[in-house]
Amino acid sequence: MELQFMESLLRIEAEAKYFFGATDRSYEQTLMDELLKIIEEAESLFGPRDRSYELLPPRISECGCAHPYVYPFRKIRIYLTPHSKTRHIASYHLAHEAVHVLGPTRSWTTVLEEGLATHFSHAYMKRVYGLQFDAPNRWYRAAMLAVSPLLAKNEFVIKELRARQPHLSKIDETLLVEVAGIELEQARILCADFESSWLVPSNWNEYATQGSQLFVEGFRSIWDEWKSR
Ligand SMILES: [Zn+2]
Predict the structure, then answer these.
(1) Rounded to the nearest whole angstrom, what is the distance from the C-alpha of residue 95 to the centroid of ligand 1?
(2) How far is the CA of 142 from the centre of ligand 1 (A)?
(3) What value, to the nearest 5°, has the Cα angle with vertex 105 and ends 75 and 149?
(4) Do 3 and 59 fall within a single domain?
(5) Are residues 91 and 191 in the same domain?
(6) CB of 83 within 8 A of CB of 195?
(7) How far is the CA of 13 from the centre of ligand 1 (A)?
């Protein structure tokens, strides 16, 4: 809660800096141009963005993590971290956040949505900049590992899922099983709340004991690490 309050102050600060001309506006415009290209690419793979939301130019802020923020009147802006003054870091964050703004919600995100955003941003950086990025932390890495097999099996699976449910984090187990043809247990992992699922060990133990090796490697090591903290 305190963190959210802090982030909202930092967003206000970023807007004030822009208002008083303390922002590099041409850089933000360059980032907006790139964001639009990224969105086009994401749409071709994952289906259309909800265009009832007006996308405002990205803004560099002092925020600790890049994130989209939904304003009243269906406007949405991506806030970037101070590190995004370096172009390729901005591009990396924009590619990740572009996935979140396809069908924006104010609710929590699932392992599926975060894994897809991480997978997409990594692929984008490799293709466009020739750079291999590490996931921001082990949780993002695990989410990415969970999503990768789905995409390897069917590159357009997300597009097919979003044709039925445009909000990534509202895609439920039943739809995943039906459209992606995966096991219910895999679907449960993917539909778990990204942040709080790490705090529910029974999911991981249950899943691990079933012996499915498809995703479990990444998750197991994370759970072991988490346990020993
Ligand atoms: Zn994210």
Answers:
(1) 10
(2) 13
(3) 125
(4) yes
(5) no
(6) no
(7) 22
Ligand 1: centre distance to CA 177 (Å): 23
Give yes or no: residues 71 and 153 share one domain. no
Contact 149, 214 (CB under 8 A): yes
pTM greater than the 0.90 cutoff: no
The answer on 210 and 175 residing in a single domain is: yes
Cα–Cα distance for residue pair 229/226, rounded to 1 Å = 5
Domain that includes residue 75, residue range: 1-104
Between the CA of 97 and the centroid of ligand 1 the distance, in Å, is 6
Measured N-to-C along each axis, helices 157-164 and 25-46 cross at an angle, to the nearest 10 degrees, of: 90
What is the distance in A from the centroid of ligand 1 to the CA of 8?
Answer: 17
pLDDT tens for each residue of the chain, 229 residues long: 566 777 888 888 888 888 777 778 889 999 999 999 999 999 999 999 999 999 999 999 988 889 999 998 999 999 999 999 999 999 999 999 999 999 987 778 999 999 999 999 999 999 999 999 888 888 999 999 999 999 999 999 999 999 999 999 999 999 999 999 999 999 999 999 998 765 544 444 443 343 334 344 444 444 455 445 4
Q: For residue 110, report the distance from its CA to the centre of ligand 1, in Å.
A: 9
